[in-house]
Amino acid sequence: TTTGVASTAPTSGLGAADISYQNDVLDRHNLYRRRHHVPDLTWNDDLANYAKEYLDNHNLCFQLEHSGGSYGENLAGGFSTAAAIDAWYNEVSLYDFNKSEFSSATGHFTQVVWKGSTEVGCYTYQCGNVGFWWVVACEYYPRGNIIGWFAENVLPE
């Protein structure tokens, strides 16, 4: 059986509706956003429910594929929630602040710190002992990674 999880550890629980999970997601995102002098994100249940619905209805346990929705979206497979957010942020080492443009190698990082994004909702899906084991989806509103707006929204430390 596949279930959502309430924490960053491999345990069963309430998923995105769990306050502890929400706080973990916000704390991790906002730690990194503060490094770049952008406002904290707030939790959005609609975004979390969108992520849950997408992961519940699509088998991403073996191959990640974006939903194609109207939100900004980061996906990760094989990571705990905290480790996924860390991995997304760690793309900072590849980002060229002098060019301030989109790169597929840094798109997760730029979405995490995108100044214009104000809300986030995430869901972590347990695949069981197959594939990635865990899939994390975070949805952002307003979406980031808008061509022509990187200099204003992805600020250096």
Automatic annotation (TrEMBL):
Organism classification: Eukaryota, Fungi, Dikarya, Ascomycota, Saccharomycotina
Organism, scientific name: Nadsonia fulvescens var. elongata DSM 6958
Any Pfam family matching the protein: CAP
Entry protein name: PR-1-like protein
SMART domains: SCP
InterPro entries xrefs: Allrgn_V5/Tpx1_CS (IPR018244), CAP_dom (IPR014044), CAP_sf (IPR035940), CRISP-related (IPR001283)
Domain spans labelled SCP: 20-148
One cellular component term from this protein's GO annotations in UniProt: extracellular region
